[in-house]
Specification:
The structure is a homodimer.
Chain A: H1 3-12, H2 15-19, H3 23-39, H4 41-57, H5 62-68, H6 72-87, E1 95-100, E2 106-113, E3 116-121, H7 126-137, E4 141-145, H8 151-166, E5 175-177, H9 183-190, E6 198-202, H10 205-214, E7 227-231, H11 237-249, E8 258-264, H12 265-281, E9 285-288, H13 290-294, E10 299-301, H14 304-308, E11 315-321, H15 324-334, E12 339-343, H16 347-356, E13 361-366, E14 383-385, E15 393-395, E16 401-412
Parallel strand pairs in A: 3-4, 3-6, 4-5, 7-8, 7-12, 8-11, 9-10, 9-11, 12-13
Antiparallel strand pairs in A: 1-2, 2-16, 14-15
Chain lengths: 414, 414
């Protein structure tokens, strides 16, 4: 039997046991894992070094090397995050709704684990701990498939997890790592409907697109963010500029940063040159329409391709529009349904924008950078869903749960 | 452009408009459609006759012909169901949760339509009205793909729907039927991620398996029901027998009927012969283990295959077990996670069974036949989900909704 199938069976066999564990038992396992991570720091770092050395020998870019590194600080951060996760409310077992039918049948809708989560992810080895701990907290078993470039680190971290599980009341086999990182094995994993209840890809667009296109197991899609800021006629100048700078520059490489600014013509007439200057002071390269180009210098012409691009960099497109409706149409055409914002003092326009823009999160007078599980107050985040089913927007622990109806009767028949 | 792509674009273009329609506007459209169905009865029946005649000419089995037929009574029933649907609560626009963050940002989690629903279904033409009306009630556009055997009926019904939409405030193009019923077109539909937000297959196991295996669009899976009844040691004899007869015979062809009865040994020693007699009196064929065979006559030996089979007929497998744990293990091995029941007066065993059996609905002292949107009190049903994501168990209107976060600030930046 292949490594994949064998491990899929191992994790699947733990689900009934895991589903019945108490919150204290799960939190205790997370606390033990936190301690083990600190105690096995030297082992983890030495295994991680093998990935780093091989990466350097293979000419991996330093920014990718940086993402691979597990140093003392990063391991301490992971250990600390586990203790914080243990403090969070456990959604499993919650009775979400309860009602009785005229025939006396009592119905409870309860939260239960999903079962087995298949996690497919790229370089960062911290995802190994992150994904495994979020799954364990919610009573799920997890089959991990990381990238070959982090295989030593991931193997070491899963050994530490299994050491911790052995000291806990949770089943030892609940977390498994696929050591064969070939594409063939990943493709087999996409079709493992008998063992996996969901696949969660974490990484770049290409990885996610491949999983979505090829998986028959249901996927939780965390997609790209081509996000917009619309500055309406009545927007306060300082607020609009401050939010534009924040949403574009505070961390340009993330999915909730903005890529295009749409500016209402009258506002643009009065304030666009100031917005351009502020962006350029912050080292942002601007691609603009003719109106925008006339309001500043060093602006290249924005093309159709600009409006379709998630720059993930200090580049922004600026386009002027006549109405809120034109802004909405642009966003619904080019956006990726992630995070969108309107800056306005006109409440009617805010309502129209928020109702008609199709996105996971729509903001009025605030930066798009708040689309994040921690900023929302969830205390944890598995990713930001851009699909419409199951979970949309920042996903906290509840996104890792399913439901089960419990029905109590006294002999009811139909 | 193909018929499929053209219609996919038409429906997709209506989603923003549809999402902003009021409950009154949507209910008004359903009421107009109800009237149009009654007024265009002759047209519908005459088109339906073409399908019936072709079906008979092709030697279609009479039971399938019966499923195809649209007569006056059935059309009146559909018209009546539309008026009942108009009476149901509209989930769209509900604020499900609302909270504020320490920085003053206010977050609302609201219910919104999913967008475009792709519906792939077999013979019964009433699904055309059923699916379209549930989608319209929840502000969704819908692309329908019925079977070739019902193409005249489906085309007529969609014409009636479009006539009704033209008299309503809803966009005319919100419901479209793919007239090309080839497999190639269905396969293209499976991959239409740019236009469809979800695919819902309705029909037999083969259809559903094909969609799940091949679709890259997210699927709402409504699967098979290999359901069990476990009669525990302390089960009241009359209740256990009455529920067994009801769950097996009241409508054997549906997914929430039971296929295997597991009986605790001591109960079996005292009462199994009476259960066997009652089942046989109700014309149920029994496949049993050795213990069961010794308690009655005309019982064939149950094999591994029996335990895996959803008979959907007046046949039942009976197996004796020593403990509740043995029953749970059998169910988690052979069941399809649909509906499972325990009959017992022992509350501890009921709790163990309900916690450890992995199914959408688990019953204590009631028939599995209640797993149904109407029996649950939802007033409508799109199907019964056997998957873990998005919706599990009977799906009412809420299963056709997604969520959107609306965030109000006064200049918050990160």
């Amino acid at each position: 039997m292949s490594d994949l199938l064998q491990k899929a069976k191992l994790v699947k066999n733990t689900t009934t046991n895991l589903a019945t564990k108490t919150t204290d038992q799960k939190n205790n396992a997370l606390t033990i894992l936190s301690r083990e991570l600190r105690e096995q720091k030297a082992f983890i770092i030495s295994e991680n070094n093998k990935d780093i050395e091989r990466g350097r020998a293979n000419g991996l870019h330093e920014s990718l090397i940086d993402r691979l590194i597990l140093n003392e600080q990063r391991i301490d951060d992971m250990a600390e995050a586990l203790l914080q996760l243990a403090e969070l409310n456990d959604p499993i077992g919650d009775v979400m709704e309860e009602w009785s039918r005229p025939n006396g049948l009592n119905i409870q809708k309860t939260r239960v684990p999903i079962g087995v989560v298949g996690m497919i992810y790229e370089a960062r080895p911290n995802v190994t701990i992150d994904a495994a701990s979020l799954c364990l907290k919610t009573g799920n078993a997890v089959l991990l498939r990381g990238s070959s470039s982090a295989i030593y680190s991931n193997t070491a971290l899963v050994k530490v997890i299994q050491d911790a599980l052995k000291q806990s009341d949770l089943p030892n086999d609940a977390v498994q790592l696929i050591e064969d990182t070939s594409r063939e094995t990943a493709s087999q994993m996409f079709k493992l409907n008998d063992y996996l209840d969901v696949l969660i890809p974490r990484g770049g667009k290409k990885l996610i697109d491949t999983v979505v296109a090829n998986a028959s197991v249901p996927v939780l899609e965390t997609g790209a963010g081509n996000c917009h800021l619309f500055i309406d006629e009545t927007a306060k100048k300082e607020m609009a500029i401050e939010i534009a700078i924040n949403a574009k520059t505070q961390r340009p490489s993330v999915c909730n940063a903005i890529e295009t600014i749409l500016v209402e013509k009258n506002w643009a007439e009065n304030h666009l040159s100031e917005l351009i200057a502020a962006l350029q002071d912050a080292d942002v390269e601007i691609h603009g329409d003719s109106f925008t180009m006339a309001k500043g210098s060093n602006i290249s012409r924005a093309t159709e391709e600009d409006y379709e691009t998630e720059y993930l960099d200090k580049i922004v497109a600026i386009k002027t529009v006549e109405t809120v409706q034109e802004a909405i149409n642009h966003i619904n055409r080019y956006g990726t349904n992630h995070s969108e914002a309107i800056i306005t003092e006109n409440d009617a326009n805010a309502v129209t924008f928020m109702n008609e823009v199709d996105a996971a999160a729509v903001y009025h007078n605030a930066s798009t950078r708040f689309t994040d599980g921690f900023e929302f107050g969830f205390g944890a985040e598995i990713g930001i869903s851009t699909q419409k089913l199951h979970a949309r927007g920042p996903m906290g622990l509840e996104a890792l749960t399913s439901t089960k109806y419990l029905l109590h009767g006294n002999g009811q028949i139909k």
